[in-house]
Amino acid sequence: MKFQHEYRDAAAAKKLLRAIGEVVTKPWTIMEVCGGQTHTIVRYGIDELLPQKVELVHGPGCPVCVTPLELIDKAIEIASRDDVIFCSFGDMLRVPGSRSDLLNIKARGGDVRIIYSPLDCLKIAEKNPDRTVVFFAVGFETTSPANAMAVWQARKRRIDNFAVLVSHVLVPPAMETILSSPTNRVQGFLGAGHVCSVMGYEEYEPLADRYQIPIVVTGFEPVDLLEGIYRCVRMLEQGKIGVDNQYSRAVQRQGSRAAQGLIDEVFEVTDRKWRGIGTIPRSGYRLRAEYERFDAEQRFAVSHMQVLESSKCISGLVLQGIRKPHDCPAFGKQCAPEHPLGATMVSSEGACAAYYNYGRFLQNHSAAATADVPMDDVPLEPKNVPIPSD
C-alpha cells in the first residue's frame, strides 16, 4: 500500500478512540466479519483500547477456518494419489483433517505444491499431461473471480487434466445465520472490505433492514477499523440502521460487475457446510453443470466422505462470536500451532492463531497485548510481523 503509514498513524488512532469514548453511552457488541480484521484488532490491542462499553467479537471471517473437516479429508485422499499433483495456497497445508494434514502428505512423498495463483495450475497441467492437477479452491467471494477464471480458461483451452476441489462460502448467509440464532448478541457488524470490493454492499442492505442493525464496510488497518467502529457505535447510539461504507477507497456499492459476471458464469449458489457451524442454506458456490467435468469431488469419487469434528475444539462457538479463543480449556495447551485441534489455530486469519501469536494466552494478556505497541509513543508499526489480509 503506497500510503500505508497514514492508516497506522498514532495521532489519528487516538483521536478516533476519544471520539468513540465521547459518543458511547450504552454497552454494544460489534462483530468483525473478516479474519484479517481480527488479526489487526488483536495485533494492535484495539479491542483492549476501546471503552469497556464496546465489545468486539470475532465472526466466521476466515475461509480456511470454516472449510469443513470432511473436505480437508477429501483433499488429503486426492493428494495421496500418485496420478495427482495437488495445488493449494500455503495456508491450507497445516489445517488438520481427522487424521492428518496436507503437509504430512507432502512429507510422505505426495506431490503437494504451494501456488500463488490458480492460473499457475493450468501451466502445471500443460507440462504434466499424464497427471491430473487439482486446485483446492477455498475462499469467500474475494477469491472466487480468480478461481472461476482458472476453470473458465481450462474449458476454453481444453485442459482436461485440471480439476478444482471447491470450498467457496458466502458472507451474507453466515451473517444472517448469526443474527437469527437465539444465542445472538451481535448488534452491529464491521463488513469485510475485500469481499465487498468484489460483491459491493447492495446485498447487505436487506439484511440490515430485516434485522434492524448497522453494518459498516471497513478496511484492514488500525485507523480503518477504529473509524469503522466509531461509525458503527454512532449509528447504534442514534438508532440508525443500514449500510455505511468506511472503505470507499476500495469499495463501491455495486462492486465489480465484471468479476460478478465471471463468478456467475462458472459457479452457482448451493448449500454449504461450515466447520463448527453446520450447513447454511445457499451459503456457497459449486460448479455449474457446464463445468462439472472439472469437479474434483466427482472425478475422484470422494463426495460421500463424512467425518466428525473434535469434541474438544470450540472453534464453532468462536466463529459465531459466542466465545473467545481463551475461553477454550484446550487453548495454548492441547491446542497450539504445533499441534492444533482446529483450523482457527493454524490459519493465517484464524482468531485462535491471532490470540496465541499476540500473547492472549498469558495470564496478564491485556498488558502483554498492548506492551509491544504503545500508541502514545510510536506509530502503529510493530516489527517483524506479517501484514494480515482478507
TrEMBL record:
Keyword Metal-binding attributed: yes
Family matches, as InterPro entries: Hyd_form_HypD, HypD_1, HypD_2_sf
Keywords assigned by UniProt, alphabetized: Iron, Metal-binding
Cleaved signal peptide residues: none
Highest taxon above the source species: Bacteria
Family under the similarity heading: Belongs to the HypD family.
Protein name: Hydrogenase formation protein HypD
Annotated source species: Novipirellula rosea
Classification of source organism: Bacteria, Pseudomonadati, Planctomycetota, Planctomycetia, Pirellulales
